[in-house]
Every structure is written in structure tokens, then in C-alpha cells.
Amino acid sequence: MKRPRLLGLVLKNLVSKPATIQYPRVKTPVELDFRGVQYADLGKCTGCSLCAIECPADAIKMTPIPPEYEVPKTNPRRIYPLINYGKCVFCYRCVKVCPTNAYIATNKYDIAGVSRLTSEAFSLTTLRRVGS
Ligand code: SF4
Ligand code: SF4
User: Fold this and answer.
1) For the whole model, what pTM was predicted?
2) I need a surface site. Which of 3, 63, 91, 96 has the fewest CB within 10 A?
């Protein structure tokens, strides 16, 4: 690149706005149908395990529901799909195959943190605690 052209580019970039977003101070805009965090509504889940069997990334582990939660009679084994978002590739195969449409799909993406990222907290909020 010739010097005068390079100088012109430098001057242009000095006065133009940055091309990047200052995340996380500025939120990245996403489409409404962006495939973000998905989790099972345990009021609808029957614990059939189909989503775990079909997951191509082996990101779903069927897990016992803690005893302090009220579980619908339609889930006699009291198990639910626990998603490891660190392994999930967000293909939404689980959402599509669920025979009871139990999955709640969101466009939430900002879940990075120091703790292990799973659907536990999301799914358990869909059940009532015993006695509440
Ligand atoms: S979105 Fe795909 S990879 Fe993620 S848990 Fe569902 S089936 Fe598995
Ligand atoms: S496929 Fe649906 S009903 Fe079956 S375990 Fe998964 S979320 Fe529950």
C-alpha cells in the first residue's frame, strides 16, 4: 500500500465510529427467533427421555427432580432433561422432537459465568415447591 493511501485510511479511521460493540456494556441486538437458551417446562415434561436420546451433542442428561418440588402425575419417574449449555450446539433438535411441546425456547444468549451452565435453575422454576 502506498504511503498517501495509508495515511488517508488512518485519518478516516480516526474520525469514524468503532465497528465493534462495547459488549457487555452495550447489548448485542439479536433477532426474536434467535436460538438462545432452551429448557423444559416441567409442568409438561413426562420424563420420556426422547430429547436426551436425540441430542447430537450428548448435552442432555436425564436427572431426578429434587424431592422438594411438586411433580405432575404424568412424570411417574420424576426425572427431567438437564441441559449442559457448554456442550449444546443450539440445533433445537430437542425442542422439535418433544412429544408434549415441553420446551421453552428463548433468545437469551448472555449466560456466560463462572459456574457450570445448565438448565437446572430455569427448569426448576417451572414447578411449585411442596407446601408453597
Ligand atoms: S439444542 Fe441440540 S445440542 Fe442443544 S440440547 Fe437440544 S438437541 Fe442437544
Ligand atoms: S422429550 Fe419432552 S417430555 Fe420427553 S423428556 Fe424431553 S422435555 Fe420431557
Assistant:
1) 0.85
2) 3
